[in-house]
Write a structure and sequence with these properties.
The protein contains five helices and five strands; from the N terminus they run E-H-E-H-E-H-E-H-E-H. It is α/β, with parallel strands linked by helices. The chain has a single domain, classed as 3-Layer(aba) Sandwich (Rossmann fold). The chain is globular, with a radius of gyration of 13 Å.
Length: about 130
């Protein structure tokens, strides 16, 4: 657990229950968890806190997830932050937009468990 203590994870999700569930799990795994409830907050938090990895939804109030990702990628400090999309959207357009912006993975919410997400985050951070 000590290996993750310095790792900040930013969860950008407008569904409070899911955001809290993810935050609780990653806190138990030893991560410093940052939370944002929309894309605008997510962008501002990413800018200020420089997380090691970002988990984000796509459809959110104030700023769409893809727009937030584009804004983060436009910054020098945001080019290398791994981003994992967690969305209900299966539309190929959203998937391809996310991949074009360099997301590490695109997970459809109905197809994964919290353990899958934790495993993916740990795998990605161990590659950095």
């Amino acid at each position: 657990m000590a290996k993750t203590m310095s790792k900040k994870i930013l969860i950008v999700e407008d569904e409070e229950d899911l955001r809290d569930t993810l935050a609780d799990r990653f806190t138990k795994e030893g991560y410093e968890v940052l939370q944002a409830k929309n894309g605008e907050e997510g962008f501002n938090m990413a800018l200020k806190e420089k997380p090691a990895i970002i988990l984000t939804d796509i459809l959110m109030p104030k700023k769409h997830g893809i727009d937030m990702i584009k804004d983060i990628r436009s910054l020098e400090s945001g080019k290398s932050i791994p981003i994992i999309v967690l969305s209900n959207l299966t539309d190929a357009e959203y998937t391809s937009d996310a991949i074009e912006e360099g997301v590490f993975s695109y997970l459809v919410k109905s197809d994964w468990s919290i353990n899958d997400v934790v495993e993916m985050v740990e795998k990605r951070l161990s590659e950095k």
